[in-house]
């Protein structure tokens, strides 16, 4: 990992006591060691993006897509001025077929962010990519799947008349692809396209494809198609759905009747949960397609919270989990009791891990927001208590965020240091101010990776060590690392 370093007007060793150097840029690199190649993040500004995307080098493609995303955010007219639009999209289409999920994710993320800048070319450009973009709804990587949903939803909101083209591409994929797993996942995820803006659009092509799938594929995929068709019925309303169904051949109508009879929805007075958006979690097969963790939590929700590493997905899963517990019945309580220990252990682990990821989300937001728009008092009131958090990972993430805040405050540290001293006095946290000063004098910043995650400027070698000896850990320059590891318990007297 190459940490991103801040270059001040004074050498660190020459700074006076308590003086913080003015930091120049979030993107100033450290001098590269001779065994490291120059990073493609620092390529010349006049690069030909279409040519770079053709490269077989993994890093060059990732960094080029990252820079394209930044360009689209800065200049709404960049695509109008692009002289090689056709070649650019041919290379993007090629990237969507790449085996590396990281490249796929960054490519789709760029499309999602840049769509509003495509203007009158939007429908043509995205529909050109659709045969390789739509199957990403069934990606084995949840981050790719999530950003694909966002991109396709954004496209339909910007270009609702393109729904017909999307449904034709979907039909071709479902009826010709031999990849059963991806096909089943695409069918399960597609209801995310049931947007309120499109409720009066023509969905007949989708129902035609789903009913054909029921009659020509394995039982599991047919059941998934029936669930999606049932969601379409709820989305459109019974009358509109029946009109489409009756226009299909009788054999397809029979296939739908045969498979949909096993699909039930939690409607009626017995339903205790409040109304919610149509998702796969609101449906289950009578044959038992919906599995449970801890006796009461649907496996889909449990996977969002326990098995997922994305903080945003986890938070969404926790909200759904909370609704389940708020509406728990006595029968469900009896099913939960045998699993109570593992239930509490799992939630405890999630909450321990989640806090530092939320801090990192906020750090990423700070790094991509103009300092003129930031309320630093509010940020500091949230950040400083995290430096005292009992969890080591949270303290680590908080010190990384502290570096960013210090940089954005442009050397004006009075407010920051006053808030730190007040917290030190209030909580009896002796040594906190010294640890904060050590971090600010370190003049290093975290980095946002190509996939949006935070790469720490001072990463530990493991959960309990920075690879620094005990004697070095007690030195002034490493007091921040000492605090992260020990929370001030072993801070030397100054």
TrEMBL record:
<protein>
    <submittedName>
        <fullName>TOG domain-containing protein</fullName>
    </submittedName>
</protein>
<dbReference type="InterPro" id="IPR011989">
    <property type="entry name" value="ARM-like"/>
</dbReference>
<dbReference type="InterPro" id="IPR016024">
    <property type="entry name" value="ARM-type_fold"/>
</dbReference>
